[in-house]
Specification:
- By secondary structure, the chain is an alpha+beta fold.
């Protein structure tokens, strides 16, 4: 029998047989019938014990088979016990362990897919400026005109700056999504935030003859990361500039309530098409009327930064026309 091939069972059976013989011999010292009685009791108890042990090992063997099928055949975890006892507890704990291992495997698979997608996105977005740089280098090697060389050199510097900005933004998105970049938590004045965000855009706004009109409550502030939030606000202002006609106005306001601090950026122009509103914060999404050299990651980065500071970023088309972005930084969990 397969059961008797177990070394532990054979050792126990040998020891129990010796004890049964000893009980029989001791019984002979009293009476032969007493010896037979002792032997019968030993045999009965031994048979009951071995029957119980065999059933126990059969259940262990069945559990082992179920585990083997789950691990190697990928079957579902459908052997949750419905009885009590040590083996039932063991089955339950093994089930929990397998669930945890499967969740970790799925998480690792998701991280692997995310890494693969991120590398693909970065390589795809860098492909266009790198191709332009190769063309510029090729033209520079063929021309002898100093004026054309200077113009090509300026274009090369511009493209290199774009590659640097694009790479830095994509890496920042990857770090935010993976959790390796965590926004700081410190009191942030909305006035200081606005001044920091708008500073790099003063010249482009002047060239387009745009007016940025702030209306900020003096006490408006929130808990967050000033540099990261300034970058998010800068991306929102840049997007508003792209769609505001020359000579137009962009309005920025901020207010503070007991529950949240709200920042609102309202621009002129045609507004956002209704069918595009649910998608504008998606990575690499560009609207049908998008202009410029953007690749569709500015609004996505802004949304990621706001989300990781207990905030909500929304976009809508107000009744007066144009587009409106609103950010709410909540003081507690939402």
């Amino acid at each position: 029998m397969r059961f008797l091939l177990n070394p532990e069972i054979r050792r126990f059976a040998g020891g129990y047989a010796m004890l049964s013989v000893l009980a029989f011999l001791l019984g002979l010292l009293i009476d032969f019938s007493c010896a037979l009685y002792a032997l019968a009791v030993c045999l009965g108890l031994g048979a009951a014990f071995f029957a119980f042990t065999q059933a126990r090992y059969r259940r262990i063997r069945r559990l082992s088979g179920e585990l083997d099928r789950v691990l190697h055949a990928g079957l579902s975890l459908d052997f949750v016990p419905d009885e009590e006892g040590e083996l039932a507890c063991l089955r339950s704990e093994i089930y929990k362990l397998l669930v945890r291992l499967r969740e970790q495997a799925e998480a690792l698979e998701g991280e692997k897919r995310y890494l693969n997608d991120s590398l693909f996105d970065i390589s795809h977005q860098l492909k266009t400026p790198m191709a332009s740089l190769r063309l510029i280098v090729s033209r520079m090697s063929r021309t002898e005109d100093e004026g054309e060389r200077s113009a090509l050199l300026m274009e090369m510097n511009r493209m290199l700056g774009r590659v640097d900005d694009l790479t830095a933004t994509l890496l920042k998105i990857a770090r935010l999504e993976s959790g390796t970049l965590t926004p700081g938590r410190a009191p942030v004045s909305v006035r200081a935030l606005f001044d920091r965000a708008v500073q790099p855009l003063l010249i482009p706004m002047e060239l387009k003859n745009l007016s940025l009109i702030p209306r900020i409550e003096p006490e408006a502030c929130f808990e967050g990361d000033l540099p990261l939030t300034a970058e998010a606000l800068l991306n929102l202002i840049k997007n508003s500039m792209d769609y505001t006609p020359e000579g137009g106005e962009i309005h920025f306001s901020a207010r503070q309530t007991p529950l949240f601090t709200e920042l609102v950026l309202r621009s002129g122009g045609p507004g956002i098409p209704e069918d595009e509103l649910p998608h504008i914060f998606e990575r690499f999404y560009r609207g049908k009327h998008a202009s410029g050299e953007g690749v569709g990651i500015g609004l996505y980065l802004a949304d990621q930064i706001v989300r990781r500071q207990n905030g909500v970023l929304r976009a809508r088309n107000p009744k007066g026309g144009g587009a409106e972005f609103s950010i709410r930084f909540y003081r507690g969990a939402i």
